[in-house]
Amino acid sequence: MSQFTELFPAEFVWGAATASYQIEGASNEDGRGESVWDRFCATPGKVRNGDSGAVACDFYHRYHDDITLMRELGLDAFRFSIAWPRVLPEGKGRVNAAGLDFYDKLVDELLGNGIAPYVTLFHWDTPQVLEDAGGWPARETIDAFAEYVEAVSARLGDRVAHWITHNEPWVVSWVGHGWGHHAPGRQSDADALATAHHLLLSHGRAVEILRRNSPGAQVGITLNLDNPYAATESPEDIAAARWVDGLHNRWFLDPLFRGSYPDDMLEAWAEIMPEVRDGDLELISTPIDFLGINNYTSPLVAADDNGGRSRIVRRADVDRTDMGWEVVPEGLQDLLLRLHRDYQPEAIYVTENGAAYPDVRGHDGSVNDPERQAYLESYLAGAARAVAQGVPLRGYFAWSLLDNFEWAWGYWKRFGLTYIDFATLERVPKGSFYWYRDFIAKQRLRAAGEAAA
Ligand code: IFM
After folding, report:
1. Whose CA is nearest to atom 2 of ligand 1?
2. Is 425 exposed, middle or buried (0-12, 13-18, 19+ CB in 10 A)?
3. Which domains does the chain possess?
4. What is the maximal distance between C-alpha atoms in the chain?
5. How far is CA 260 from CA 203, 256, 265, 280, 328, in A?
6. pLDDT over 70 for what percent of the chain?
7. How far is the CA of 171 from the centre of ligand 1 (A)?
8. Does residue 415 contact residue 356 with C-beta atoms inside 8 Å?
9. What amino acid positions are annotated as catalytic residues?
10. Which is nearest to 411 in space by CA: 42, 50, 30?
11. H/E element, 118
12. pLDDT digit string (tens) for 160-218?
């Protein structure tokens, strides 16, 4: 039985999140162009088992059924992303009407079911033609992104009231361009930093466009943030944790909310910094309405005796998810308090939080996943405690509505509230799905009771 005693405000938004390449499939339909992830998946050795998003959950054809699942959950909001190569198959120039039609119908059907669309414009599927022309390390890609945002918001801006410009620019920069574990598979620190700067600039451009094409809408960006803890009180361990914080968090938060890059990191990266022109930081720090955060774990960090900047210490006393990520719910609470204290965003949404576990179907066909329920419940309790301390957290999106294509891990890692049998594409709500449904309903009931009292 749930012991959850915390209460979220009545107007709190309950949602679930997804991303285009991870769920849509239909990768060759209706004029969609190639994305860097199509190319990466087709490159031997890059994605486990040679998996790809070619079919994924087939959301492109089955979204009616998935909206039925959202209704059953009682969601207020659904976070999804738009595939740039569906809208502009050549990355810029010609608009593919069929691509926009799909999202138009999706938005209408969500709204018709009382579910608010929270739209992410970029969740990693860069058109391959743009990568071939230099990709995100090239400044010109910002103009192409602006064209794409213009086309999408001109069509959907009258109905979409919440826009997220980018998802996790740190991952795109470092995992995709610095270390090569994600598409496009580059391995250059200088490319990673150029990518980060251009993603942030393109965010600023997108905010301007969205203000014009979607007046009254709320606009934000989603960062993957964690709360690094120093392993001990030693100055060396504290410095190591500060480095990790600079790499993951401050490199994005400072320019967005303070209009400057952090000095300590600038010093460390002086040799490989991209060109930062006059006006760039003003554009990046264009005011936004909310900060989206994706949080899954928070590392324990110590000094690296082998000459590196830091090392991650494995905690002995915590549970781990199937990704090997440590379950650290107080990390989310501390992160929310810190963001509120240090950066004061107008509003915050947890735009992703969840856990992968190796789910299997039982003899009766059901999927029992008590670990995921416990994970979600503990993180939600942390979030609620932060709200009680004044953090303007306005909503929570579980990652994910469906098991889906988990990037370089292929279909091996299951994050969904709904199990997908990838052979048949059958949807099977897991135990955590019913738990989340009941949790949302109880929160609403209790909040309404409080309001009436
Ligand atoms: O699946 C991803 C998502 O695309 C971005 N945030 C983290 C999730 C789990 O790894």
Report:
1. 406
2. middle
3. 13-452 (3.20.20.80)
4. 64
5. 15, 8, 11, 10, 30
6. 99
7. 9
8. yes
9. 168, 352
10. 50
11. strand 116-122
12. 999 999 999 999 999 999 999 999 999 999 999 999 999 999 999 999 999 999 999 99
